[in-house]
Every structure is written in C-alpha cells, then in structure tokens.
Amino acid sequence: MKQAEQYQNQHVLVLGLAKSGYAAARLLHQLGANVTVNDGKSLEDNPQAQELIEQGIEVICGSHPLSLLDKQVDLIIKNPGIPYSNVLLVEAEKKNIPIQTEIELAYQISEADIIAITGSNGKTTTTTLITEMLYNSGRSPLVAGNIGIVACEVAEQATNDDIIVMELSSFQLMGTDKFRPKISVLLNLFDAHLDYHGTKQHYINAKARIQAQQQESDFLVYNVSDEIINEIAQSSSATKIGFSTSQLVPNGLDVADGYIRYRTKPMIAVKDIMLPGKHNIENILAAVGATILAGASLTQIQHVLKTFGGVEHRLQFVKNQNERLFYNDSKATNILATSKALEAFDKPVILLAGGLDRGNSFESLIPSLRGVKSVITYGETKDKIAETARSINIQSVQVVNKIEEAVTAAYEESEAGDVILLSPACASWDQFKTFEERGQAFIKAINDL
C-alpha cells in the first residue's frame, strides 16, 4: 500500500465502529495518526472497541459527547450510516473540520486501479458481473465497498497487479474528497434515501462525486437514457462511454437486432444471456463497458453472460420444481425494484409481496401489476397491497401472515410454466432482521414444500 504520509501525526476522530470504523481506526493508527474512536455502544458490549484499546488506540464509548471536539481534531472519518444531522457532525461542520468516509482513505493508500460503481438500483449485480468477467479474463479483481470487504482493508493488501471493484452507496460517496477511480460506472438515479440526504439534489450531488475528480485519462461509463446521469456526464472531465437499452449509442453500448453491441459491433445475442430482465440488460451493458476498458477478453465476457444466474436475493433463480420457476428478489425493498422484477418475465407470474409498512401507498405499482396472474401478500402491508391488486381485478388475491404460508399458497395455486416470484416492494424489518434473512426463509420454504 501507499504510505499516505498526510495522515502521519494528524488527530483523527473515527466516529462509529462496525466493520468500516474498526478497519479505518486500525489503519490510521498504523499510518501514524493520533486516533480517537467514538462509538455509541457501551464498552462492555463492544469487542471491537476493546481490541482497539489493546492496540493502544483511545476509545470513548456509550455516547457522542461534543467535548470530543474541544481538543484538536484535524479530520473525522465517519461510519457511512451516521447521518450528517448527528449533533457532533453538525458542530464539526461549524468548525470546518473535514468529514470523510473510509472510501477516501482506501483511495489514498491504494496501489491498485479502482473501478467504482454506483446507482439507485443494480449496483451489486453490476459489481458482481464486472468481477466475474475480470476474474475469468485472468485479471485479479478484489471486491470492496458496499459488498465484500471494507474498502480500506482491501486497499491495504492490494498491489498494482490487482484491480479493486468497489460498489459505493451515496452515504459512502458523500464523504469523499480526492477520490478518483480509474473507471466509474453510473447506472441510474431515482428518489432514494431522502430521509438521509434531505433533498433529491443532495442525493444526486453525493452520487455525482464518483466522477468529480476524474480526468481525461479516466473513464466514465454512464446511462445516456437517464436524464440526471446524462447531466452529470456532460460536466465530467473523464472520457465518456455511454450505454442504453432504449436508444442507439454508436460510440458506446446498446441493443439492436436482438444483440448487445459495442461500438456497433454485435457481441452476444440477448436470448443467450442467462440473467432475466430489461433492467439487467442495463447492468450488463455497464459491466461490459467497464470490463472492456479494463482489458477483459470478449470470449470470457460472453461466457459469464451465458452462465451467470444472478446475485443472491436479487432476482435470483432458486429452482425449477415441477415446472414452476421460483425466483428470489428479496432485495426489492421498494416499489421501483418490484416493478422492474415484474417487467423481467414474459411468463405468468404469481407475486409474493409485503413487509414493513412505511405509510406509503402502492398505486405506483399498478402498471407493473397488470397481467400478473396472482398476488399473495403477507406482513404489515398485506392488506394495502391486496387492496391495490383487487382494484385492478387481478384474478386471484390471497392474504396470509408469513412468507412460508405465501410459498405454500403460491405453489398450490400454480400451474406448470408459472413463475413464483418473491419481490416484496417493502423493507423486511416487520418480520426479519435483513432482506437476506427474508430471502433465506423463502428458499427454505421452497425446499420444504
């Protein structure tokens, strides 16, 4: 790793532990910074904090006292999940103390080139596709960021023979300063995380930081059909490679005559791609563009597209049981994601949906629900979604309590050739700790049929 001498003797406050805070604190200590760690958990319940104390790092647990700013603080590295409305951060901004995430630290020490991916939807699928294509092409990709290992931990071990493939959220990007990936990928932008960012413009500004420091020798792979991303791209200094599923992009990636094309040359027939869904074609175009720029082989790109069946819990094919096709899309925690999942299939769909009630209606799901064979709802939002489905005369609507009951009901109602799709359109926290736990419960219920 690069030594990043700018951190030596700096007084750095690491706010919030979890994996990223722990890794950042340990690394900054190694780089010669004077590190203080502050975490809301009590010390007794905080083994990570106890480990850092044993390494000679000052740790203050249990609250976020403003007195931490009474002494010299040159930099704050914060956990991405802590909002900027936190009183300590508000006071730090008044004092003009830089506030960053460990993504900036990872960039400063990395010897490896970075491919960075962001967007409202599709980040994990695109990141995984890029990683698979590079790995199959003999490169050495290291996955980091929002999936995989904490970015600064990966960067610490990476050499210039590696390439870091980094999935980034708006929370992580908002805390960057000089971050400059070799290749940035901008997928799409929809209303999201407004409770964190406050306004849509702040959310857009955070996402745009992925390319803010790029120069002409760097590359921006971007969705030309997304109006907001197109605006960001026009102001970028990077060399631009556009992609679109709805218009031709002669100098980039598009779809024409049933083929994915790069600079008008056909690469692979859409019918030969294993991953279903128009939205996944967008992810594929982005991944192909990034990996071509990173030196992946066309043969291996084609091989991955013919064999890659999806990321776990993201429109993941689970199994074919008596000619019923089960798909796990537990990651669809909002209406937009479920809409895209429904648009992916041209077979009859039995939709399983429901979860945490955040007070929203489901009227915007109606266009995608038209043509669905059956809807089975569960969880806090079961009645709301059922009412929406009945309002457009879907032939069969059932209301149950739990996901296991929904699976049984869907199978009993299904016929050969049907798709049984879990795509909840809601967060999982009414009945599960995470969307992953929800997806695993769905898969177990299928296997228990």
TrEMBL record:
What subcellular locations does the record give? Answer: Cytoplasm
The pathway it acts in is: Cell wall biogenesis; peptidoglycan biosynthesis
Which Enzyme Commission number(s) are on file for it? Answer: 6.3.2.9
The gene designation is murD
Protein's recorded name: UDP-N-acetylmuramoylalanine--D-glutamate ligase
GO MF annotation list:
UDP-N-acetylmuramoylalanine-D-glutamate ligase activity
Keywords attached to this entry: ATP-binding, Cell cycle, Cell division, Cell shape, Cell wall biogenesis/degradation, Cytoplasm, Ligase, Nucleotide-binding, Peptidoglycan synthesis
> Would you identify the family this protein belongs to, as annotated?
Belongs to the MurCDEF family.
Species per Swiss-Prot/TrEMBL record: Alkalicoccobacillus plakortidis
Looking at the record, the residues that make up the Mur ligase central domain are: 117-290
